[in-house]
Amino acid sequence: MVVDGEETLILDLLFKNSILSFFLVLGVSVLMVKSKAFGGNGVLYPIVGFVSCVAFVYLSFGDLWMNIHVDTTKLSFVERNGTQFVVDGRPFYFNGWNSYWMMDHAADAFRRGKVREMLQTGARMGLTVCRTWAFNDGEYNALQITPGRFDERVFRALDYVIAESRRYGIRLMLCLVNNLQAYGGKTQYVKWAWEEGVGLSSSNDSFFYDPSIRRYFKHYVKTVLTRRNTLTGVEYRDDPTIFGWELINEPRCMTDKSGDTLQDWIEEMSTFIKEIDRNHLLTVGLEGFYGPKSPKRLTVNPEIWASDVGTDFIRNSKISTVDFASVHIYPDHWTHNPDFEYKLKFVAKWMISHIEDGDKELKKPVMFTEFGLSTENADFSPAQRERFYKVILDIMYKSAVRNKSGAGSLVWQFLVEGMEESNDDFGIIPWKRQSTYQLFTEQSCKLARVQGALSTQINYLRKLCSSL
Question: What residues are labeled active site?
Answer without folding.
Answer: 250, 370
